[in-house]
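Translate sequence into structure tokens.
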Amino acid sequence: MTDKKILIKEFILKNPNLSGNAIYTKTKGTPLAIRKTDFYKIFRESKNLPEPDIAKRESSIPIKHRTTIQKQRIQKRVKRISKVKVKTARIPFEKTKFGKMVKTAQTKFKVNEKDAIIYTRKILKLPKEDYHRLNQIDRDILIQYGY
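Result follows.
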């Protein structure tokens, strides 16, 4: 391996105008061919270049070959991006079917809203636990109002 290192360093010094990638592709099919990471390490040593930072190294590794630590960092970035809340349009309680029934019960019997909801649930034979029988919109609204 040391002989190859010396030969590769000589090849790099003989071709100062070529980039690291160009030199690597030229040595690929020859007896000087070595692992890519080892080649770039030798290339950096001979040209006095600094080591790449951690972020650049991680970005060059394909996702399926990354370690769990690298995957966790990516997931944290995705979570930060996905935490942006999208405001949903709130539908007024009176405009839903259940809300209309509650309002009519409220005006007919002259009771407050909570009693009208309890009355409407009794009419529909809906126990408090069986909200799944209502439409999704009605359920969301009842949850908003704390019922």
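Note: The chain has three domains: 1-51, 53-84, 93-144.
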